[in-house]
Amino acid sequence: MQKSSGQAFLILGIILISINLRTSIASVGPLIPFIREDLGISNGLAGFLTTLSLLTFAVFSLFAPSIGKRLGHGQAIFLGIFLLTIGVIVRVLGGIELLYLGTALTGIGIVIANVLMIPFFKARLPEKIGLMTAILSTGMSLFAAVASGISVPLAVDLGLGWRGSLASWGVLMVLALVVWIPQMSSRKSGFQGDLLKAKNVWKSKLAWQITLFMGAQSVMYFTMVTWLPDMLIARGMSPVKAGVALSYMQLISLIGTFFVPNYLIRLKEQSNVILIVGIGYLVGYSALFIQNELIAFAALTIIGIGSGASLSIAYTLISLRSAEDLTTAKLSGMVQSAGYILAALGPLIFGISLDLFDNWNILIWFLLIMTVQFILFGLPAGRNRKI
C-alpha cells in the first residue's frame, strides 16, 4: 500500500512538472503587443524573447546531464523548476533587462527538468515508460495551448496586466515544487557505476540519427506555430479564424501525443510508425497548396496528429535506444540541444526566404523538405538497436 501510494505521488509530481515545461513560453506570444507598448521596445526586441528561450534550451541541454550526475535526477529536476519559478517572477519586476534575465532563467530551469525527466522516470518506473512519456508530452502540449489561449483574458478581463498574467503561472510551479519534495532523496543507487558504462553519444551514428529526426520535427512544429497564422491571413482568412486554426492544430496534436508512446514500446521496431507519420505529413503539407478553408482544416488535422505523435516518438526513442541511465541523460541532452538549435533557425530561415521571394508556397516546400529529413533519419532511428 505504501509503495502504491508513493508511486501515485511520484506520477502526480511528473504530471505537475510536465504542465509547467511550456507555460512560461507559450504565455508570452499573445502578450507581446502589451509588453512592447508598456516597455517601449521594438518588434525585434520583443520577438527575441522566444529566440532567447530556444537558444537557452540549446546551450543548457548540454549541461543538464552533468547537473543530474552531480545532484541526482530528483534534486536536479527540483532545481530546474525552482529556477523556472524565480525566472517567472524576475521577468515581470522591471524593464527590458529583468525581462531578458528572467526569460533566460526560465529557459535554464525548463531545460534542466526537461532533459532529466526521461532518464528519471526510466529509472524509477521502467515498466511505465510509455505511460510516463505520454504524460510528459501531453502535459507540455496541453498546457502550452491553454497558456496561449488564456494569457490575454488573464491580462485584460481579470485586469492582471501582462505582468500579472505571466506571473500567475508561478502558482502551478510552486505546487509542483511542493509535490516534488519527496523525490529529492531519490538519488538512484548505482548511478555512479553507470559512469564507466556510459557511451559517448556524440560519436554514435544512431544518436545522430535520433538527433536529426528530433531536429526535423522541431523545425516543422516551431515553423508552423510561428508562420501558419500569417500564411492563412495572407490567403484571406480572418485573424480570428487563423488563430483558431493554430489552436486547433495544437489541440488535435494531443491525440498523437498521448496514444502513441504506449503503442510504440510494444513494438520491436518503430520504423513503420515513423514512416506512416511521415507520409501523413507529406499529405497534410501538400494539401495546403490548395487555398480552401475546409481543406486547410483537414490538412491541419493530419499535421496536428502527426506533430503530437512526432514529439512522443522522439522522447520514446531516447529511452528505447539507450541502456544506461547516464547514456539516456546524455542522449536526451544531445537530442534536445540540436533540436532547439534547429527549431530556432527554422522560422528565421523561412522568414528570410519570405522577404526575398514573397511567396507563401515556399513555406510548404520548406516543410516538405523537412519531412523528407524526418523520414530519412527516422527510419534507421526506429530500428531495434542500442547506443
From TrEMBL:
Give the stretches traversing the membrane.
45-64, 76-93, 99-121, 133-154, 166-185, 206-228, 248-265, 272-290, 296-318, 338-356, 362-382
Q: Which residues form the Major facilitator superfamily (MFS) profile domain?
A: 8-385
The lineage's top-level taxon is Bacteria
GO MF assignments: transmembrane transporter activity
Pfam families (alphabetical): MFS_1
> What InterPro entries does its record include?
MFS (IPR011701), MFS_Cyanate_Porter (IPR052524), MFS_dom (IPR020846), MFS_trans_sf (IPR036259)
**Sorted alphabetically, which keywords does the UniProt record give?**
Membrane, Transmembrane, Transmembrane helix
Presence of keyword Transmembrane: yes
Q: Does the keyword Transmembrane helix apply?
A: yes
Q: Which CDD domains match?
A: MFS_NIMT_CynX_like (cd17339)
Q: Which PANTHER family match?
A: 2-NITROIMIDAZOLE TRANSPORTER (PTHR23523:SF2), PTHR23523
Record-given protein name: MFS transporter, CP family, cyanate transporter
Q: Which organism is it from?
A: Algoriphagus alkaliphilus
Source organism lineage?
Bacteria, Pseudomonadati, Bacteroidota, Cytophagia, Cytophagales
